[in-house]
Amino acid sequence: MHDRYQSPLSTRYASYEMQYIFSDDNKFITWRKLWIALAEAEKELGLNITDEQINELRSHVDAINYEVAIEREKQTRHDVMSHVYAYGEQCPKAKPMIHLGATSCYVGDNTDVLIMYNALLLIRKKLVKVIDNLKRFAENYKELPTLAYTHLQPAQLTTVGKRACLWIQDLLIDLEYLNYTINSLKLLGVKGTTGTQASFLNLFDGDHEKVKKLDDLVCEKLGFKDRYFKITGQTYPRKQDTMVLNVLASIAQSAYKFSNDLRLLQSFKEIEEPFEENQIGSSAMPYKRNPMRSERISSLSRYVIANVINPAITAATQWFERTLDDSANKRIVVAESFLALDGILNLYINITENLVVYPKIIEKRVMDELPFMATENVMMEAVKKGGDRQELHERIRLHSMEAGKRVKEMGLDNDLISRIAEDPLFKLNIEEIKAAIIPSNYIGRSKEQVEEFLEQEVNPVLNEFLEKNIKVEINV
Predict the structure, then answer these.
(1) Is 2 one of the annotated active-site residues of the chain?
(2) Residue 289, SS3 per DSSP
(3) Separation CA 280–CA 304 (nearest Å)
(4) Which of 112, 254, 257 is nearest to 175 (CA)?
(5) In sequence order, which residues have a C-beta less than 8 Å from that of residue 430 and are 6 or more positions away?
(6) d(C-alpha 10, C-alpha 14), whole Å
(7) Active site residue: 59, 184, 282, 440, which one?
(8) Are 250 and 177 in contact (CB under 8 A)?
C-alpha cells in the first residue's frame, strides 16, 4: 500500500510483538474477553445468564467480524455499540446480555490498561536485555583505560567498562521506575456511566454488596485482583496515562544519553556501532561509517520525551466526570510512544550486542593527553630526587604550555615527556618519567567499581528479570 500515509513506526521501527499489542485484533479480542468476564461475574452473582450463552460468547472471542462492525458504525457513529451488534450477530443466544449494565468505557478503558500493562512487560523484557548486554561489555573492558571527560574536555582516566556502568546505572533507575509503574497500574473496573454504578445497582435490585463484588470478580478474572480504582468518574484517572508515558520518557532519556555518547566515541574512532558488510554509510561519501542506528535512537527518543506533554495536558483538562476530548489524543500518543520506545530498545539491543572497540586508538588518545594529567606524579618523583616543588610546578607549567602549543598550533605530537627529561631541574630520565605515566595507574578504582557494581547491583536484577532467547530485528 503506497498510495496513502503509513506510520513509519509500523513500517520501519517497531517490532511485530509491540504492533500486535496495539493492533485491532488484540483490542477487540480484549473487548470480548471483558464482555465475557462481565457476563460470568453477573451470572455468579445471580443474574439470569446461562452457561450456554457464555459458552457461545467464548466460542467467538477471537473471530472478530470486522465487516459487520464497520458497516454498523457507518450508521451509528459509535464504535462500541457497533461491536456489541457484531458480536450479537455471531452469538444470537447471548445477544440480549452482552454489555449488560456497562458503558463504553468499561471495554474501552479497561482494555487500554490491559494493553499498556502487556506493553510495559515487553518493554521490561527488552530493557533488561540491554542491561545484560552492557554488563558483558563492562566486564570485558573493565580494565581498559580511556579518557574521561568533563565539559567535553579530557579530564582524567576512567575505563571503557566503567563508562558502560554509567549507562547501566541509568537503566537500573528506569527499571525500578518501570516495576513501580507495572505494579501500580489499576483497571477502571465496573463503574457505569458516571462512576456511581447506578445501572448495576438497579440490575441487582439495590444490593450494594453484589455491586461491590462485581467489581472484585471482574477485575480478578482479568488478572488484576484488588487492583482497580475504587472511585472514578466515567473513566479511570487520566493521570495514569501520564505516569505510564513518564516512565517511557525516562527510558528514552537513558537511551538518548547512550546514543549521544556513542556518536561522540565513533567520531573519536574509539568505539563504533555495528556496520554490516553491505551497509552504505553515505550516498556521496562511500568511505563513511555513520552512526545511523545511534542517531535513530536519538531521534526517536526525542519524540518519546516530547510526547509526555500530551497526557499531562489531557489529565489537566478533563471536565468533571469526563469529556471526550481525551480520546483522539490518547489513541495516538499512548500507542506511538510505546511503538517508538520499542524501536529504540530494538536498536539499543542490536548495538550493544555488537559494539566494536578499537583499543589501539583508545590507547593513542590516552597517551596524547596523559602526560598533562600525569604532571603531579612526575613532579612528586622529581621532589623525591631533591627538587623544589614550587620551582618544579612553574617549570612544568611552562613546558606544558609549549607542548600544548606544539600540538594545537603545529599539529605535532605531545613532547612534554621529552621536554621534562631534557630539563636538568627534574633529574629524571625518559624511562623514569614513562614509569610514572602508566595509564593503568590513573584509573583509580574503576576496575573494582565495575566488579562491585555488577555483582551487587546488576546480577540480582538479571537473575530476577532476564529472559532467555530474546531476539530483535531492525528493519533499516
Answers:
(1) no
(2) coil
(3) 28
(4) 254
(5) 417, 418, 421
(6) 6
(7) 282
(8) yes
CA angle 94, 96, 98 (to 5 degrees): 70
Model confidence at 283: pLDDT above 70: no
Cell 583505560 -> residue: 145
* 264 burial level (CB within 10 Å; 0-12, 13-18, 19+): middle
pLDDT digits (tens, 9 = 90+) for 156-192: 999 999 999 999 999 999 999 999 999 999 999 999 9
pLDDT in tens, 361-401: 999 999 999 988 888 888 888 999 899 999 999 999 899 88
CB atoms under 10 Å from CB of 63, counted, come to 10
Instruction: Say whether 140 sits in a helix, a strand or coil.
Output: helix
Phi, psi (5° rounding) for residue 277? -55, -40
CA 449-455-458 angle, 5° bins? 95
**Residues 421/423/428/429 CA torsion (nearest 10 deg):** 40
d(Cα 18, Cα 342) in Å, to the nearest integer?
7
C-alpha cell of residue 45: 452473582
Q: CB–CB of 403/416 below 8 Å?
A: yes
Give the span between the Cα atoms of 156 and 445, in whole angstroms.
13
Name the residue among 311, 318, 324 with its Cα closest to residue 105: 324
Q: How many CB atoms lie within 10 A of CB 465?
A: 17
Q: State in Å, rounded, how far the first CA of the chain is from the last one.
A: 19
Would you say 193 and 108 are in contact if contact means Cβ atoms under 8 Å apart?
A: no
Q: Say if residues 243 and 316 touch (Cβ distance below 8 Å).
A: no
> Which of 158, 164, 165 has its CA nearest to residue 373?
158
- What distance in Å separates the CA atoms of residue 9 and residue 223, rounded to the nearest whole number? 30
The answer to whether 187 and 228 are in contact (CB under 8 A) is yes
The span from the CA of 269 to the CA of 295, in Å, is 16
pLDDT single digits (tens) 12-21: 999 999 999 9
Domains (ranges, CATH) in the chain?
Answer: 23-90 (1.10.275.10), 361-441 (1.10.40.30)
Decide if 151 is catalytic: yes
From the list 60, 407, 462, 180, the residue with the least C-alpha distance to 69 is 60
Structure-block grid coordinates of residue 407: 600540538
DSSP for 363-393, written as a single string: HHHHHHHHHHHTHHHHHHHHHHTT--HHHHH
Q: Which residue is catalytic, options 2, 151, 267, 283?
A: 151
Residue 444 burial class via C-beta count within 10 angstroms: exposed 0-12, middle 13-18, buried 19 and up: middle
Q: How far apart are CA 235 and CA 237, in angstroms?
A: 6
